[in-house]
Amino acid sequence: GSILDGLCAQPADPLLALIGMFRDDPRPGKIDMGVGVYRDADGKTPVMAAVKAAEAILLKDQQTKSYLGPEGDARFAELLTPIIFGDVDAARLCGVQTPGGTGALRLGAELLARGRAGTRVLVGTPTWPNHVPLMEAAGLKLVPFKHFDVATQALCFDETLAAINAAERGDVILLHGCCHNPTGADYTVEQWNTLAPLIAERGLLPFVDLAYQGLGHGLDADAAGLRAVVAHNPEVLVAYSCDKNFGLYRERVGALFVVSDRAELIQSNLLALARANWSMPPDHGAAIVRTILDSPELTASWRAELDAMRLRILGVREAVAAHDPAIDLTRQSGMFSMLSLSTEQIRALREVHAVYMAGSGRINVAGLTPDAIPAFAAAVAAVR
Ligand code: PLP
């Protein structure tokens, strides 16, 4: 027998199955709110203008594709720093480029496991499904608390505070910096200002997942929670993704940053872990981001296009609520909201109305084109 005889088949990703069903649906008015990528008013996920321009520059000017180091493109990480952190003491910051926000989360999880095996990670649920296998694969133990009540569409702030107060010193708390996936329910500035000092007081280590900066309320507003956490806590991990706010998804662009008095020690561990995982990250996407952020013109173009994306999402949220006040999507931010629907209702939306969403009731608001909004609102009303 082979060692591989011990393997058992794994379930397929339900979202990928949904993509297949949508593709094979012949109905002309079908609506896809399943996949988690931005779509414009024509239903497209275009390459941003600044990205195209940066790629043209790279094609013309790039002299070599020789190896960088395990830290990837250092200038890329340096240019991102003020956008993410605002003013920050550079001596207390270290970071490496990673394959996407996913790579950053995994590297951060492994750093924590290296610090102490079996570390507990508090996480509000529902959360991005991949958080769970990712943290567990690194040897961490997840401790869930309730983040969002789907039936009442309310963020469970009391549960968050209770979880922090019940935690042990040295536990980690994983926080979505903005545009919570899958619920869109973010803490208010006041709530962040309560959480940030409480986390420090309770001796927890905050790990902030910032995957959608600029798609909620703007680049600075979307980082306000993270900055409050950094202001109050001696050590903070930040997993960052450029895949949504630069539209670079498949290029896998991200970074892990750590704020700490022992930045040098931590950086040496990040490099060792990166080497053991992927040796060095893929270059192209980070080179695009670096080229954009190194150019005032391209940066202005990127910011303007990102702002237009953000405003389109806000516009869809308002248009749906204007169409049917019973579907109030204006209290959440970013691409996602989670509707209070039963499995039966979600199936009826798909089978009867050709409206596709994740089995959890998560919808990608950007999946709605303007002309699809009435049909979507009518379909939800019909199944409720
Ligand atoms: N974190 C959250 C909350 C996400 O929703 C995602 C992607 O969907 C990621 C991290 C990972 O992003 P990336 O595609 O850059 O790996």
TrEMBL record:
Organism, as annotated: Sphingosinicella soli
Keyword set, alphabetical order: Aminotransferase, Pyridoxal phosphate, Transferase
Keyword presence, Ubl conjugation: no
Transferase keyword on record: yes
GO molecular function, one term: identical protein binding
Transmembrane segments: none
Similarity field: Belongs to the class-I pyridoxal-phosphate-dependent aminotransferase family.
Record-level GO cellular component terms: cytosol
One GO BP annotation of this record: L-phenylalanine biosynthetic process from chorismate via phenylpyruvate
InterPro entries reported in the protein's UniProt record: Aminotransferase_I/II_large, Asp_trans, PyrdxlP-dep_Trfase, PyrdxlP-dep_Trfase_major, PyrdxlP-dep_Trfase_small
Subunit organization: Homodimer.
Every Aminotransferase class I/classII large domain range: 29-379
EC number: 2.6.1.57
Cofactor: pyridoxal 5'-phosphate
Record-given protein name: Aromatic-amino-acid transaminase
